[in-house]
Design a protein that fits this description.
The complex is a heterodimer of chains A (392) and B (141).
Chain A: E1 12-19, H1 30-44, E2 54-59, H2 66-72, E3 80-85, H3 93-103, E4 109-117, H4 149-164, H5 168-182, H6 197-202, E5 205-208, E6 210-211, E7 220-229, H7 230-233, E8 241-250, H8 268-278, E9 287-289, H9 295-304, H10 313-318, H11 336-339, H12 346-357, E10 370-374, E11 383-391
Parallel strand pairs in A: 2-3, 2-4, 9-10
Antiparallel strand pairs in A: 1-7, 1-8, 4-7, 5-6, 8-11, 10-11
Helix pairs in contact in A: 5-9
Chain B: H1 16-23, E1 28-32, E2 38-39, E3 54-58, E4 62-71, E5 85-92, E6 99-104, E7 115-122, E8 128-134
Parallel strand pairs in B: 6-8
Antiparallel strand pairs in B: 1-2, 1-3, 4-5, 4-7, 5-6, 7-8
Classes of the chains: A alpha/beta (392), B mainly beta (141).
C-alpha cells in the first residue's frame, strides 16, 4: 500500500520550548548553542535532563549530533534519536517522527533541536566553508552556477509570474507582512526595524525576480522543543500542544521526470496527507507558520495548503487576509525566517507553541488553538514536511 | 570563456558517460532500450520502467526556455565574471519533462518559449559544461 491515509497517532504533545539569542555572530559553538536551547526547553517543560531519553535534529551545514549532546548531558539511556540529513524541507519531519516515537512508547521525552551558526559559521552553499555532504544531484546544476536555493525558488517564482501575472509587489507584500510581525518580537533580529514596499522594491537584486528582501536572514542560534506523551504533558506547567497531524515525504524538483508545471505548489501532496492525518481541513486552521526561506514559497504554500485558489494570493494579501491582527489566517506571526531569524524552520514551532499557549504577548492572535507549521515546501531536495499542532 | 572553476562535476559510474560526452562536445541523454523513456539527470535506472537497460544517445540539443532568472549574486567563483547573467531552465525538445539549466549566451532578453540550442564547452577530458544560445541569433559561444 502506497502510503496510509490513517489518522496520525495523537499521543504526543510539545510541553517545553527553548531558544538562544538569535544573532549574526553567536560567539559560541553550535554545540554550546544546542546545550543552551535544550536546557531552556527542558526547564520550560518543568522536567529534568534525566527525564530525556530521545534527541532529534537535522541539518546540512553546521550541526550537533544527538550522540554528542547525549554525552554532554550524561544521557546513557538514549532510546530514540534522529540525525536527519537535509535542511528546512525536513524540519517538521523530526517533529512528526518524535511524535511517532512518543506515541508508540519508544521514548518518553524527546527533545527536537536545531543549532546553527548559519552566519558566522558555515554559511549555506559553500560561501563560508565546504558543506559536510553534497547532494548528488547538485553536480548537474553547478556547471551553470545553479546552486543556491534562492536561484531555484526564483525560477519557480518566475513560472508563477508567467502563469498568473504575479508581480514583484506581491512578493514584496509578504516581506512587509513578515517584517511588520517582527517589529514587536523580542527574539526577532529585525525587531523595531520597519520595512515599506518602497524599501522592498529598491532593494538590490540577488536572483531576479528575487530582491535581497525576498531572502531570509542568515542567523546564528538554536531552538529546542520537548515532546512527551499527551497524558504526561497535561500535568506539566504549560498548555500542551498536541501533534494532531504530521506528514513528510516527497515533493517535486527539477530533476523529477514526469513533472511539467513549475508554477504548481509542491506543497499540495504533503498538504492533502497532512489534513487527512489530522482529520482537519484548511478552514480549521487558526494560524499558520509557513516556511519562508524566501517570499515566494509563502505564496505557493498558501495555495498548496488550500488557503487560496491558484493565483489568488495577491488579492488576499492586499485585503489583509493574512495579517496578524484582523486577518482570517494570520501567518508568520513572529516575522518568520525572513524577519525573526533563520533557525532552519524550528523557530516556527517555538512561535506556534507560544501562540497556542496564549503567551505571545503583543503578538498574540485571537484564535490560537490550531496551528499549521510547515517545512520547506518541496523544492531543491524534493522533500517536504509539515505538522498541525492543537492546544489541549 | 570558462574561467577559474573551483567546483567541478564529480563523475561516477552513473554519470561518467554524460560528462564525457559533454567533454567531447555532445549532449547525451539516457535512453531506455526497453520503454523508450529518457532520463535526466543520469541515474542507475530508467525513470519510467526502472530497468537498467539504458544507453546514452545524443539529442538535438534544441529546446525552449520555460523559466529563467537573472543571477546578480553568485557563490560560484567560475560564474562570478558573468554576473549579472541569465540562467535559463530549458525544456528539451525530445522530452518535455526534462528541464536543463544553463547560462543564456548573448544579449537576448529571455522569454517563455524562446528557442535555444545547447552550446557545449569542454572543462577537461572527463567533463564539460552546457550553455544555451538563442536559435534565432547569430550569437555563438
Amino acid at each position: 500500500m502506497a502510503g496510509s491515509r490513517e489518522q496520525f497517532p495523537q499521543g504526543a504533545a510539545i510541553a517545553g520550548i527553548g531558544c538562544t539569542e538569535f544573532s549574526k555572530a553567536s560567539g559560541v559553538t553550535p554545540f554550546k548553542l544546542a546545550t543552551r536551547a535544550v536546557k531552556a526547553a527542558i526547564a520550560d517543560a518543568g522536567l529534568e535532563i534525566s527525564d530525556i531519553d530521545g534527541l532529534c535534529t537535522y541539518g546540512t551545514n553546521d550541526s550537533v549530533s544527538p550522540n554528542l549532546l547525549a554525552q554532554a548531558f550524561g544521557i546513557t539511556s538514549l532510546s530514540f534519536y534522529l540525525d536527519q540529513w537535509m535542511g528546512g524541507s525536513v524540519s517538521m519531519s523530526i517533529i512528526g517522527q518524535a511524535a511517532l516515537a512518543v506515541s508508540a512508547g519508544v521514548a518518553d521525552c524527546v527533545v527536537c533541536y536545531r543549532a546553527i551558526n548559519g552566519r558566522s559559521g558555515i554559511r549555506k552553499n559553500a560561501s563560508g566553508g565546504p558543506p559536510a555532504r553534497v547532494p548528488w544531484d547538485i553536480q548537474f546544476k553547478m556547471p551553470s552556477g545553479y546552486m543556491v536555493p534562492a536561484q531555484e525558488m526564483a525560477m519557480n517564482a518566475r513560472a508563477h509570474m508567467l502563469r498568473y501575472g504575479t508581480k514583484h509587489e506581491d512578493f514584496g507584500r509578504i516581506a512587509v507582512l513578515s517584517r511588520t510581525n517582527a517589529l514587536d518580537n523580542e527574539r526577532a533580529m529585525m525587531k523595531g526595524r520597519p520595512l515599506t514596499l518602497e524599501d522592498y522594491m529598491a532593494s538590490e537584486w540577488i536572483a531576479e525576480p528575487f530582491h535581497k528582501l525576498d531572502c531570509c536572514l542568515e542567523s546564528d542560534g538554536a531552538v529546542a522543543v520537548v515532546m512527551t506523551s499527551a497524558d504526561r504533558a497535561s500535568g506539566l506547567p504549560h498548555r500542551p500542544a498536541i501533534v494532531q497531524g504530521a506528514a513528510w515525504g516527497g515533493g517535486i524538483n527539477m530533476a523529477n521526470n514526469g513533472f511539467s508545471e513549475l508554477a504548481q505548489s509542491p506543497a499540495r501532496p504533503i498538504a492533502q496527507r497532512l489534513y487527512a492525518s489530522a482529520g482537519l481541513r484548511p478552514s480549521n486552521i487558526d494560524f499558520a507558520e509557513l516556511y519562508d526561506c524566501f517570499t515566494y514559497p509563502v505564496l505557493s504554500q498558501l495555495e498548496g495548503y488550500g488557503f487560496a485558489k491558484e493565483g489568488g494570493v495577491p488579492d488576499m494579501l492586499k485585503s489583509g487576509a493574512f495579517d496578524r491582527s484582523g486577518g482570517v489566517l494570520p501567518i508568520n506571526t513572529h516575522g518568520g525566517l525572513l524577519s525573526e531569524a533563520y533557525i532552519h524552520g524550528l523557530n516556527h514551532v517555538y512561535e506556534a507553541v507560544e501562540q497556542i499557549r496564549g503567551d505571545a504577548g503583543t503578538r498574540q492572535v485571537k484564535k490560537h488553538d490550531i496551528a499549521l507549521v510547515t517545512g520547506q515546501l518541496g523544492y531543491v531536495s524534493g522533500y517536504s514536511s509539515a505538522v498541525i499542532l492543537r492546544g489541549q | 570563456m570558462i574561467s577559474e572553476r573551483r567546483i567541478k562535476p564529480l563523475p561516477d559510474e552513473d554519470s561518467r558517460d554524460y560528462w564525457r560526452a559533454l567533454a567531447e562536445g555532445r549532449l547525451d541523454i539516457q535512453h531506455c532500450r526497453d520503454c523508450g523513456q529518457r532520463t535526466w539527470p543520469p541515474r542507475p535506472v530508467c525513470s519510467k520502467c526502472f530497468g537498467e537497460n539504458l544507453q546514452f544517445n545524443t539529442v538535438s540539443g534544441a529546446g525552449e526556455i520555460y523559466s529563467w532568472i537573472v543571477v546578480y549574486r553568485s557563490t560560484m567563483p567560475h560564474m562570478m565574471p558573468y554576473v549579472p547573467y541569465t540562467l535559463a531552465l530549458v525544456r528539451l525538445d525530445e522530452q518535455h519533462d526534462i528541464y536543463i539549466p544553463g547560462r543564456l549566451l548573448g544579449d537576448a532578453v529571455a522569454e517563455r518559449g524562446m528557442r535555444v540550442r545547447a552550446v557545449i564547452e569542454k572543462i577537461d577530458d572527463e567533463t564539460g559544461d552546457l550553455a544555451w544560445s538563442p536559435l534565432s541569433s547569430a550569437n555563438r559561444a
